[in-house]
Amino acid sequence: MTRERERLLAEAVRQACIDAWREGYESACMSGLCAEGALEVGLSAVQNLDLTNVTALGRIPQSAAQSQAATFDGFDVRRATSGDWPAIWSFFRPIVEAGESHPYPSDISEDAARAAWMDTPSATYVAVRDGRVVGSYYLKPNQPGRGAHVCNAGYMGRSGGARRWRRYGAVCAFTS
Q1: Are residues 123 and 50 in the same domain?
Q2: Beta 123-129 vs 69-72: how paired, if at all?
Q3: C-beta neighbour count of 7 within 10 angstroms
Q4: 34/110 Cα distance (integer angstroms)
Q5: Which of 90, 63, 66, 64 is nearest to 79 (CA)?
Q6: Between these two residues, 166 and 153, which has the higher pLDDT value?
Q7: Under the phi-then-psi rule, with left for phi > 0, alpha for psi from -120 to 50, and beta for the rest, what region is 36?
Q8: Of 54, 60, 62, 28, whose CA–CA distance to 42 is shortest?
Q9: Less CB within 10 Å around the terminal CB: N or C of the chain?
Q10: Domain check: are 48 and 122 in the same one?
């Protein structure tokens, strides 16, 4: 590779990192995360940037924030999609019915649960192992206004996988 091609490739990678950070940061800010959380999301987007997508000089990869999945100890952690809800509901319902950890009404309807877990938070993520959703968490501002600089998170998951996954929850929150 000539020096000029190396320089052009380095510039393409640098621009991809800048774009990934900016998009992650702006998306987090628009979602209501605090400035510190938004910085971490932007940094995470850079850390998780798939540089194999920068194969042609000058070609910048698609949004890092849209396609990222971080892997921790065998769990893929990514943003939840509407298609993940049935799997989340399968562990959400028994956990809430038990009434031991989350403050939702034990008889919460599926629609209300979906709104509370998937729609109301700034972002919702899932942990996937062997193609199966085993845990989920959401991020949202702790309080409106002056309390919005503090992030709040809620976690839950399938027994047998979620307990081990939960210890990575805080790390995953800032790498997704």
Answers
A1: no
A2: unpaired
A3: 12
A4: 29
A5: 66
A6: 153
A7: alpha
A8: 28
A9: N
A10: no
Which DSSP string do the residues of 79-145 spell out, in sequence order? E--GGGHHHHHHHHHHHHHHTSS--S-TT--HHHHHIIIIISSSEEEEEEETTEEEEEEEEEESSSG
Last residue within a domain, chosen from 22, 48, 67? 67
pLDDT in tens, 12-37: 777 777 777 878 877 777 777 777 77
Name the least confident of 61-65, 85-89, 121-125.
Answer: 61-65
Q: In angstroms, how far is CA 35 from the centroid of its own chain?
A: 16
Comparing CA positions, the residue from 39, 48, 95, 99 lying closest to residue 71 is 48
Question: What is the distance between the alpha carbons of residues 81 and 70, in angstroms, rounded to a whole number?
Answer: 15
Domain count, the chain: 2
Q: Is the pLDDT of residue 46 over 60?
A: yes
* % residues pLDDT > 70 (the chain): 74
Q: Are residues 88 and 147 in the same domain?
A: yes
Residue-range definition of the domain harbouring residue 35: 3-67
